[in-house]
Structure formats: structure tokens, C-alpha cells
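To: structure desk
From: M.T.
Subject: fold request, one chain
Message: Could you run this one when you get a chance? Sequence is below, nothing fancy, just the single chain.
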Amino acid sequence: MQDVADALRLDTELSADSAAYIEELYENYLTAPDSVGEDWRQYFDRFPKGDQPHSNVREQFLLLARNSGRAMPMQQGEVSTEHERRQIAVLQLIAAYRNRGHQKAKLDPLGLAKREDVPDLALEAHGLSKSDLDTVFNTGNLAIGKSEATLGEMVADMEATYCGSIGAEYMHIVDTKEKRWIQQRLEGTKGKFNFSVDQKKHVLERLTAAEGLEKYLGNKYVGAKRFGVEGGESFIPMVNELIQRAGAVGCKEVVIGMPHRGRLNLLVNIMGKNPQDLFGEFEGKTLTKKGSGDVKYHQGFSSNVMTPGGEVHLALAFNPSHLEIVGPVVEGSVRARQVRRKDIGGDDVLPLIVHGDAAFAGQGVNMETFQMSQTRGYTVGGTVHIIVNNQVGFTTSDPRDARSTEYCTDVAKMIQAPIFHVNGDDPEAVIFATQLAHDFRHTFRKDVILDLFCYRRRGHNEADEPAATQPIMYQQIAKQPTTRTLYADKLIAENIIDRATADRLVEDYRADLEAGKHVANALVREPNKALFVDWTPYLGHDYTDVWDTTFNIERLKELGQNMAKLPEGFKMQRQVAKVIDDRFKMQTGEMPLNWGAAETLAYATILDEGYLVRITGEDVGRGTFSHRHAKLHNQVDGSVYIPLCHVKENQPRFVVWDSLLSEEAVLAFEYGYATTVPKSLIIWEAQFGDFANCAQVVIDQFIASGETKWERVCGLTMLLPHGYEGQGPEHSSARLERFLQLCAEDNMQVLTPTTPAQIFHALRRQVVRPIRKPMIVMSPKSLLRHKLATSTLTELAEGTFQTVIDEIDQLNKADVNRLVICGGKVYYDLLEKRRELGLDNVAIIRVEQLYPYPADVLNAIIETYPNIKDVVWAQEEPKNQGAWLFIAPRLYEEILPLGRNISISYAGREASAAPACGSPYLHAKQQAQLVQDALGVQVEVTGDNQ
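Reply: Done. C-alpha cells follow.
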């Protein structure tokens, strides 16, 4: 770049565009000096600096240009006139209000929150004084509708804009367009929102509904938990406004995730749940048709409401008490709905996630969910987040103990989301902030935060006494008029309504409740069913039903050929090229298939039959163990080609996303996705099976129990690499025992497949049969390339998934007196050793599906061995882990009644606190010993083996 001093000496007047360009450079310089060129950096170094992180130079350039006819360079520490020095100070003051005005805003309805003094907002901090208040200055880009104003006018407008009932944080945003947009919308109001009479009346009506339901429940069900929204009643008009505004611009679905607080109120007053149904739940009359059911403030719901733009479908997600985990579940559901609608930008489906202040700041899944928000595999075009900020957290939290930041919302700054703090006792400010938040998301497709500063009139629940731990706060709350009372008084003072009309709203709402009428004012009684998916075809089926997973062998070969076609000039890495070349031979019948060939062919057949396929995880494109290679990388230009996207013309969507390094949020996202699109195969693969530990809350509270608690079916598949290869405690076990312990009521499937044909048919079975249950696959590592773990194309085309596989060698069953039962990779260790030793009296049976436990199939196989004396369960895992504690009672229950003298024993590692040992030598020794124990052979132990 030409030296800036020379550039400024050119006989060329700066235009507005030039000034805007320089301003953007200057903002970049303030954030990261090295991001601008050396010439500009030297120039900006000369500019007078105040205490502010940002000062606006655009107007200074324009001012100099206007005064002199051309912009002249400033010397270090100099400004041409005293007025121009003060002009710069004014611009710094504007920047200060934008940066720190929120710290002076009147956010706490109780007036108790301690706000630190903000010296940057003082005139003196910038070399100004009260004597300057009547002086006219250039307003810069302060969006108050005039280019010049007195300093007093500017300060008054900025106080109203930034220090009133809304505290806006947006200057951390790097994108200048986003900042300018927010400035225009905020500063243009000057703190006056100018709502119409009808709008104000509607806000009062919704506040009346919010308060009315809580009072009614409080009187009728004294002491019952309801986690009411009292103290935060503005939440109801806030959500109502968001839905109506979204519908007005064409949104068709709003998916909501939220905690307990305010949930019942939202269900009744926004979503249209019949109050009589809610009363029945309080009285214990309403239970789910099957399963355990769940408490009323965990339940989900769906309905349709009418908006200015047409009918909108609302879906409230079910959620457990682990509050924030519902966030990524909602995001996954939204992504699935957007895919179904081909909603590329996020216009048709809006995610709304409601948080508590302490949970938002404290639970790490929020960070993971924010980090996903702009990634290719997980973006949903922005989410509106509402924090119902009680200012006290769970029960006894002091904010000083609940977080290390000024606001609970500071975590959202990691993705440069704008944050609008708003006083819940100023309903008009709440509605304006809601409109602003919605429009930002709609315009920029990014997350936005609404921080509703309110309070909790009751305790954490209605049986709690909060004054025990928050005496000062609850002394004030006892005196605090309700939000509805304050707003009604305001409208009466403005002559918009009279007292009798305000009182009649209360009476009418209560009458509707007692009459059992719906009280959501926009509810559609006969909803458009095209707005949501019909799940009835996937309900009421039995596991025992047989479903055909065969596939025409000629079409199989065609699919293999289609996947082998690469773009012209596409150059693969050498080892990958060998994998793909061999795979072509396998998928066309020239070679036995390995795991990767069979798995990818399964996906091809599923796509060919019209099912969507989505695979995500930290290394799924290649596969952690380099077996999948579903995503190929051109070594010439880095471009990516995915053969499974080219199975046939107009095929269903196939995506494979290498995820961010997250298990909890990503697995929750995929669960939400799978609960929304039934005609699909949704897969999450752990990089190592052990890593699923980090997502245990998703497994426990959604995957294992979601159907029983909420009648919410889900066909999610989890591929968890599992097997003892001497790689230490953290890379061996997917914690099979944990999944088996969670198994009951046919809630999920747990598989330990050992052949490529088995994984082919397991994946096909998961979508072909109309049962949507989670499938947990203990997937292999060394078996991906094991010389014995192969299958033929015929086994794929004509076979089926076998829950139990009998002995494959030609043994005389009458000669067998020892039966070894196992699952997974250990089978091949047993088989090779048995063959090596020529033990014709030992048969090996594989249980490929541990749950639902295939008792009938296994017992039928055992019956074919008439002279069995010993039955041994063999496993690699320690005795207190793996499948032994799950299967032992079943073996005793099923085998002993056979009427024969059969002993049942265990062969495997001793009980251990860790999943595996860390020494390859010790691992090999343990593995050899458990194989010998299983086969019943004694090996002399000498020398180093002692």
C-alpha cells in the first residue's frame, strides 16, 4: 500500500465511502493491530486515544475534508483546532455509550442489583464538561435523525437508548454491517417505542393471562409444584410476539426448548393446551397410555397457531431436569425440519431456546451448542435464546458464586451474538427487544440473546421458602407490584383503558379457565396436518416381526459400480486409492467384502430405496480407523467428492459431517434429528467408544428412556468402536455394561456384530422395518481388516441379520461337551485358538444381539448339542464390566431348566476399576489366559509367563 501520508496529500477529497472504509480499517486496528497494513497502523498510532476500546474516526476525516477541501494528515498528538479536538471527544463518548451503556441500564425490576460506576460515560473522561452541552457537534453515525446536534441532545438520546430499560451488548461483534444495523434500530427509537393502542392492549391481555393462570393454580392447588413464571410474566407476551412476528415473514414452524419455569404457562397461554387437561394432571387423573410417564413440567406438546403470515406449527420439546441438554436436541430437530422443507436459509423453521440464568452460565453444553451454530453440519440459520433471569439462580445462588462474569449471558459472546438485556417490568421494552432479536436473526441468520431481567416471586418451586437464603430480595418482592399491575396502571394513566376494563380482563380470563375453554388467543382448532410428520406408521410393531433385508444382487453390483465412478482428473492419496480399488472389486463380487465395503454398500442400498442417510462424528468421513473413506479428497486441488451422493439420480439426501470435537451436544443434536425424520438412517459414531462417556446424559435421559417417559420414538444409531487391542484403558471399552443396564421394555437394541454381512443387514433392518428404536452397535476396530471377518456379496444380497450365529466349523455336535458363548471381536481369538489346538469338543456360539435378548434363538441352538456339560460365557472385558452381569442371570434361567447337568461359568479378565490395562505385554498375557480359560485348556506357565 502507498504510504498513507502521501495518499492523504493527494488532491482528492475523501468521499463518504472512503471514510466508511477507513473507519472499518480503524475498528479492525483497535481489535487486532496486525490485521491492517503497516502504513495504516502507523497512521492510526498517531490518532488521539481515550480510555475507550473503540473511537470512531470516520467523522473526523469528513470534518477535516469539509474544513480544508481535502483531508490533511494529523501530526502525532495534534488536532487542527480545539473544536475538532472536542469533536473527537464527542465521537469517543458515543463509542463509550455503545460499548458500556448497558452497564448503566435500569435492568433490575427490584432495583437491588449493584451496578458498578461506569467512568467512561462521564463527560470528563473524554475532556468534555457541562459547558459543552449546548455546543453543536457533528453526530457522526449516531442514528438520531440529524447530522448535527448539541452535545446535550446527544447525551439525552444515548441515555434513553442505552441506559434505559434495554441494555444492548453488540460492540463485540466484528461484522460492521451487523453493528450498524443494530445501531440504526436502537438509536432510531431514542428509548420510545411508539406502539399502537391495540398493541398495548394486547400486551396487557397477555400479561393478564400469564398472571391469571398462576394465581388460579396457586389458589386451586396450594403448595403443588408448578415452577410458575410469577415475577417474569413478560415472558408470555415476549414469546407470543416472537411467534407472531416470525409467522408474519413466512415462518411455518417454531421449535421450543425450555426448562420448568414458565412451562405450564406457555403450554396453556401460548400453545393452547386445554386448561382442563392441565388440571387433570395436577389431580393425578392424566397418565400416559404406557410407560412411566413424566412430571407435567417435563412434558412436550405441539399445536398450530394463526399468525399474520398464516398457520404456524409449534413444537415444545420434552426435556429432563438436566435443563440445558434440551438445547442441542431442539437444534437437531430444527435442522431435520429444515432439510425436510428444503429450507436452506432458515426462513421456514425457527428455533427458540429458553434458559435459566444460572444454567445458561454454568452448563458446558451451551458452549458446545454455540460452537456448532455456524458449522456446516449443524447450522440452523440462527437461534433466538431467551434467558428468564431470576437473578438468583437455582435456589440459594449468589451471582458471585454462580459465574465469573458480569452477566450470565457472557458465554454467548464467543460467537459474537448480540445480547439484549431488558427489564421485565417494562413490557413495551420487552416487546421491542423481542422484535429486534427476531429481525436480527431473520436478517443475519445468527444466534441472538434476549436476557429477560426479572425475579421469582415464589421460591425455586412453590413449596420452597426463598426468604431463608435471600432475605433482602424477598422483602422487596413482597412489596413489589406485579408486572401486570404496573402496566395496567400505565395504560390507565395514558387514558388507553379505564380501571373497569382492566379488571374485566382478569374476570374474563378466570371465567374461561373455570369453563375449561382454550385461552391461547391464536390457537387453530383444526390444524393443517401438512405442517408436521405423521408417525403412526412407525408405532405398534413388534420386534419379533420378520422384515426382509435382502437386496437384488445385480443392483448391488450396479451400486458398487456407480460409487466407483470419480470425476475426471480426481487424484486420490495412494493408500486411499488402494482402498477404493479393492472396494470396487469387493462390491462387484470379485473379492470377499471387508467391513468398510459392506457398510458403504448398505448406505447405498438404503439411499436407493428412498431413505435419507446422515452420519456425523469426529472423524466419520474417513473413519477413525481409516475404513470408511466416504469422503474422498482430491490431492491436486483439495476438493471433496462423496461417492454416496451419486448412487442414482434424484436420490435422497446423503451427508457425512466430521463434527466439532464434542460428544454431548452433537449426540443430542442427532437424537433431536432422528426424532423428527422417521424415514431416515441417522448415525453418530464415536471416535473411540469410550468417548460416549461425555454424552452420558443424552444416553440416560433421552436415548434409553425417551420413549418410556414421553412416548417419543427415535431410530438413532450409535456406532461405538469397542474391542481390546492393548491400547490402554481409554481406547478399549464403549462401556457395554452401561447400555445393557439401561435396557428394559424393549427400549433399544444393543448389537455386537462380527461380520460385514451382519453390519450390512443391521443397518438395513434399522430403516426397512417400521420400528424406530435406538440401535447401539459395539463396532469393531481390528475386525475392520481381520482376515477372517469377511463376507460374500451373496450373503449381503440373500442373507438377513442373525441375532445368534451357531458354530461355523463342521463339528459333530454329539461330540461337543463344551459350549463357549461370546460376542464381538473375542470370537476370532477363540476360533483361531480352537482351530490351532484341534479342539473338536468345543463349539463357539456368537450372540450378535444382546438386547432384546434372543432367548428363543439361543436356546434352540443349545438344544442341538445333546451332550453339553459346560457352558462358558467368554468376554474380553473385566468381570464387573461387559455383558457378563447382564447375561449370567439369563443363562441360568434359560439353561438350567433344560433338565441336564450343565455348569455355567465365566472366562475373562478379573474385576477391575479401569476398563483395561495400559501395558501391551500384560494385555496380551491376559488375552491369552482368558482364551485358554474359555476353551478349557491348561497351558503350563513357566519363565517370563509366571
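Reply (cont.): The CA atoms of residues 234 and 427 lie 6 Å apart. Let me know if you need anything else for the meeting.
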